[in-house]
Every structure is written in C-alpha cells, then in structure tokens.
Write a structure and sequence with these properties.
By secondary structure, the chain is of the alpha/beta class. It has 17 helices and 27 strands. The termini are far apart.
C-alpha cells in the first residue's frame, strides 16, 4: 500500500504554477461572471497584501464566514499565499457557537459576507485577537480593499502549512481538524491519475501537469476530456465541497458556484447546462432527490436539461440510494461515486455505479488506504462478522487544533503507522464489501444491544414512501433507550407508523426496529446534508411540532 504524501509545500505554489501556465483559462465561474486564472492569482495576491498589512503572519488564522462564491476561494488562496491558515465557519451557527469557534481557532482575521456581518459586529468587543474584518458583498469593503493595494509579491513557502476544517459538531462542539497542505494535495492523486498523470511533487511538475491537461506544451490535445469544471452543490464551508475544489484547482480546473444560498435544484441544473459542468458534488439523497424532481419537471414542461457535459457525480456523508442514482444515470452518462469520508479523512470506502453496472444501496468497498480494526488494533478478518472501526491512512490530518487528548483518541497508531479513526463502526464481508454500522457517539443502547442509527435510517429510506429519516434513542423505563425514528414522507404517498416498522422488520433484527415513528414535514439537516441528531432527539422527546 503506497503512501501518496508529496514533499512538504503550500498549495499556493501549485495554484501559482497553474496561473502562470494557463493564465487565460477560467478558474472561477459564478452566474455570468468568470474569473481567469491570472485574475484569480492577482486578486488573491491583493487580498494577501491586505492580510500582511494587518499584521497577519505565517500561522495566523483567517476565518471564512461566507456563502459559496468566488470570494470564498480567493480568500483561501490569499491565506495560502501568506502562509496563514483558513478556518471554515458554518453560516448557520448561533452567536454561542460563533463565539466558541472564533476563540477556539485563535482567529486574527474574519472575511465575512455583509449579510452575516452583524453577528461578527456583536462579538467583536470580545474577540481581542481579531485585527482585521473584511466584508464581502454590495455593502462590504472587499473590492475597495483589493483596489487599494498592490499584489503581495510571491514568497518562499518551504514547510507544510495548514488548512483548518472544523467538524459539523452534530454531537458536540466542533473541533478544528488540522490538514497539512501535503495531505490535501495527496487526496487529489485520483484526480491526476484520471488524466494519466502522477501527483506533482514540485511547482514545476504542477505547471507541466496543467499544460498537459489543457493540451499545451507539445501535447496534441488535452489529457482525458480536458480540465474539470466542478460545481460543489454543498457549501464550501464543509469538507465534501472544499477538498474536492482544492483538488480540481490543483489540477488546473475551474470551480462553478451558484448565487442561491440554499439548494435550488433548478438553478443548479441551469448552471450545469450553461457552464458545461463536468463534475458535481452532492450530499446523498438530500440533494439527489430534489435534482431528480427538477429534471422530471423540466421534462414534463418540454424543456429537458442538457446534461451531456456531466461525467461524474460524487456524494459523501449520507445515504445515496440506487434509485436516485438510476434516475440520474438514465438522463446522463455519468459515473456515480458514493464515498465514505469525514472531516478527519477521505477515502475510507467507495461505491461506484455506471450505466449497466449498478451498486447496492449503502454497499461500499474499502479504499486503497483504508482498513477495519478492532479497538485494540487488530485487523478485522473479512467474513468474520466481527465489528471494527473504520480507519484510513495515506494523506490524513495531523490532529485537532489545541486538543491533544481528542487528537490521540482519533489519530491512532495501528500496525506501526498512524491512522485516522473517527469512530465509525463496520463489518467486512468475505468479498471485501463493508457494512457501515454508524458512529459510536450516537449509538443507541437498547436493553443492552447496540443499535447504530445509520443502519436503521438506510433501511427506512428504502421504503418508497420515505423521503428522509433520522433515528435516535430516547429514554425508556423498559429498554433503557428506545429506538425512535423521525421520518419525512414523500408528499405523494400515504404511509403510517405500522407499515414503516414492518418494513424495518423485513430486514433488521427486532431490537433494531423503531418502537415509535414520528412523522414530520421535513427532516432537519445541516447545510452539508448531515444528520442533526440534536434536533431529531428533541423532536423524538417532545413530539412533532
């Protein structure tokens, strides 16, 4: 098993090499605005000069409290240029959560959408480390600041700098996952391999790769189908979209964003069609089902969407049913890649479906750098039925910022090397397929039996009348904890609690089946599509509202 870590360096070196090689190619596309690679480099260098003038130095933290858009990516490039550390901020956080994150990350600068700026203004008197706030938007000062400075000259960036990815915090306060740039680039190895190229190990190799991908420098034609155009449908503040975007930019591609701040399937499809998007990242059925519904509506209206440019759809984080994959593949010749990943690592497992080659819902194969271990570090034997913890090696983070105890709990040494072990349990079948059981932190203990919510949720979602579901444990005198499902139905179906429990019993052991089902108009999820178990538990304890 190879370990695809390149030598320590900074992603700004990669992106600068790309900008020098394909200056006129598009880097960022947002509605009717296109930012070329040369303009992307220039604008990021100007923002880096703003950071530098404010006293930010290598290692300073820059919080990105922004919606999707070019400015989010420019601010990331700018921070990389001056060796600062970008910090993602969930724009749905309350004041309490924001106070915690700004303080926990030691943020010295905040780049904020002007619609969100009042939340920052309210906290600024407490944020003694913050020395700069840059506001993005029609009422902000972002553009004026860029116009007021000269681009910061390029600097020597020897050393493995960091990018922070704060976890979603669905079961506790978020933790800052520290990703070295070398690991971020390492996650893009499959992207380069798709072009028949090795992962670059120097800026010169990054420039050569960009030339090959664009069909320059003696190449008779672009490699593969040419540069990738990625539309990250989920927010860039989450790992699914961000890590994919950094990989596409490193391979000289372009990032397409849409103006809407919530999922608008019609707008998303319009952007795919207008900008010839090749790759799309989504978050399971929470995104796929509205997209399919929009495609069907367009067909009924006699205006089918042109998806001929689309080659790959990637999902990570939640269930993506084969039914919705089939509906998408019927309309586009795409590869549907369902990935298991987390803020603490990518490449745990994958399930790939193509036209004529379906994949069973929630059936995954271990990734190249992944294993399943028992808690004492012994590898689980395929076909043994033994439960173990999913672990991934290769390009991984180095720990949680400021939390050595939790870092040691998650980044563990097995078989003589360090693995990322976020806490997801699984079994391994004889053929290498894994069955994902779920995260131990939300595991339900009912009469002494362990029930993993995701396992029950996946079965519920296979019922044709179920649109979405969360499963939690609620206190119960008889069982200790009782399994309770919070379910949103497809509006065209009439389903009751008895039918849903019977559906679960056809697949699951009796103790895993819900004792109670609460029907709600909509299952609340984070903007990354992940389950909000705190909300679901409140509904389960207090009833639907």
């Amino acid at each position: 098993m190879s370990d695809p870590h390149p030598a320590p360096w900074n992603l700004a070196d990669v992106w600068e090499a790309v900008a020098d090689t394909v200056p006129d190619a598009p880097a960022l596309i947002h509605a009717d605005r296109t930012v070329s690679w040369s303009a992307f480099d220039d604008r990021a260098a100007r923002l880096a000069a703003v950071f530098d003038a404010a006293g930010l130095r290598p290692g300073s933290k820059v919080a990105h409290y922004l919606y999707n858009g070019p400015e989010y990516i420019e601010a990331t490039f700018a921070a990389f240029k001056c060796r600062a550390v970008p910090v993602n901020v969930n724009y749905r956080y309350t004041e309490h959560e924001l106070r915690y994150l700004f303080a926990n990350s030691d943020a010295e600068a905040i780049v904020v959408d002007d619609d969100l700026a009042p939340h920052v203004d309210a906290l600024l008197p407490e944020l003694t480390k913050v020395r700069l706030v840059v506001r993005v938007g029609p009422n902000g000062d972002y553009e004026q600041r860029l116009a007021s400075v000269e681009p910061m000259p390029r600097i020597d960036r020897r050393g493995d700098d960091l990018w922070f990815l704060y976890t979603g915090g669905t079961t506790g306060m978020p933790k800052g996952v520290m990703w070295p740039h070398s690991s971020l680039l390492g996650t893009a190895a499959p992207t380069f391999a798709g072009f028949g190229l090795d992962l670059p190990s120097s800026p010169a190799e990054a420039a050569a790769a960009a030339a090959a991908i664009h069909g320059l420098g003696g190449e008779s034609a672009p490699r593969g189908d040419g540069p990738i155009r990625l539309l990250p449908a989920a927010p860039l503040m989450h790992g699914t979209s961000a890590i994919a975007s950094w990989g596409v930019l490193s391979s000289a591609g372009a990032i397409v964003t849409v103006p809407e701040r919530h999922l608008d399937a019609g707008s998303l499809l319009g952007a795919i069609e207008a900008h010839r998007v090749t790759n799309l990242t989504i978050v399971g059925d929470a995104f796929a089902k509205p997209i399919v519904a929009a495609l069907e509506a367009a067909e009924r209206a006699g205006r089918p969407v042109d998806l001929s440019s689309l080659t790959t759809i990637v999902s990570s984080g939640v269930m993506w049913s084969q039914a919705t994959k089939d509906a998408l593949m019927a309309r586009a010749d795409v590869v549907c890649a369902d990935l298991l990943g987390s803020s603490e690592g990518v490449g745990f497992a994958r399930s790939v479906a193509r036209r004529g080659r379906s994949a069973r819902t929630a059936s995954f194969r271990l990734g190249e750098h992944a294993r399943v271990f028992t808690e004492d570090g012994r590898a689980v034997e395929p076909g043994s039925g033994e439960r173990g913890l999913l672990a991934v090696g290769g390009p991984i983070p180095i720990g949680y910022y400021g939390d050595p105890v939790k870092s040691a709990e998650t980044f563990r040494t097995f078989a003589g090397r360090v693995w990322s072990v976020p806490g997801d349990w699984a079994t391994v079948e004889a053929d290498g397929v894994i069955t994902l059981l779920g995260r131990g932190s939300v595991c339900i203990n009912t009469a002494g039996e362990k029930v993993f919510p995701e396992e029950v949720e996946e079965v519920l979602k296979t019922h044709p009348g179920v649109l979405d579901a969360n499963v939690v444990g609620v206190e119960d005198e008889k069982w200790g904890q009782a399994v309770c499902a919070v379910v949103a139905l497809d509006g065209d179906r009439s389903v009751d609690e008895t039918e849903l429990i019977a559906h679960c019993r056809s697949t699951l052991a009796g103790y895993k089946c819900p004792k109670r089902v609460i029907l709600v108009p909509r299952v609340e999820r984070g903007p990354n599509g992940k389950a909000d178990y705190r909300w679901a538990r409140s509904v389960a304890e207090n009833g639907a509202t």
